[in-house]
């Protein structure tokens, strides 16, 4: 039995003061730290949004468009975002209070300017893999708990891909260690995850 914790995009860009802040995003940092320090996990993985400055999901790359408009990227509908988590900037760094010394492996994502990458496992077009599933398999992981930012985007898609790409692995979503962008979107994401067999848990229950 190998238990892994996957922290999704706990970066400055998604916390208050960042370029694409999730409300109360910073409040999950102490919970993530407690989970890492608990001794419950054999392996801690963190994903990191790591965009080139000209990423096609940025509204700045689409003349006449504003952040949160719908646009198009590689022929598919695309939510356009503010420039965020650009490689090598402070916005892309992990939150300063996150105990990064306990992270065993960092999976960067979103590096191809022609496609967005919500999931830590593969690009949104599901064509290019990040390699994370192979890494998790190579470590013999049997249980994968995940949390982070944002519930209704990167966390949800990572959880769903984990179920698809890691058959036989138990996948759990840690609700209180995550925050989302839109309350209705969060509720829908949780419903979708449950429908796919993902268990919804709390850090309190895991740490008890």
Can you put this structure into words, describing what you see?
The protein has about 210 residues and is α/β, with parallel strands linked by helices. The mean pLDDT is about 95. Helix 3 (about 150-165) runs parallel beside helix 4. It has a single domain, classed as Rossmann fold (3-Layer(aba) Sandwich). It has 5 helices and 8 strands. It has a 6-stranded parallel sheet, sandwiched between helices. The protein has helices at about 30-35, 130-140, 150-165, 185-195, 205, and strands spanning about 5-10, 45-50, 70-75, 75-80, 105-110, 145-150, 170-175, 200. The radius of gyration is 16 Å and the shape is globular.
Structural class: alpha/beta
The rough form would be described as globular
Please write the string of helix (H) and strand (E) elements.
Answer: EHEEEEHEHEHEH
Q: How many individual domains?
A: 1
Strand neighbour order, sheet with most strands: 5-2-1-6-7-8
Q: What's the number of helices? A: 5
Give the distance, in angstroms, between the N- and C-terminal Cα atoms. Answer: 19 Å
pLDDT < 50 runs, ≥5 residues: none
The CATH class label is: Alpha Beta
Main sheet properties: 6 strands, parallel
The CATH fourth-level homologous superfamily: Isochorismatase-like
What percent of residues are in strands? Answer: 15-25%
CATH fold-level name: Rossmann fold
The appropriate CATH architecture is 3-Layer(aba) Sandwich
The tally of beta strands, per DSSP, is: 8
* Helicity range: 10-25%
Mean pLDDT: 97
Spatial extent as radius of gyration: 16 Å
Structural key phrases:
Rossmann fold; 208 residues; alpha/beta; single chain; 5 helices
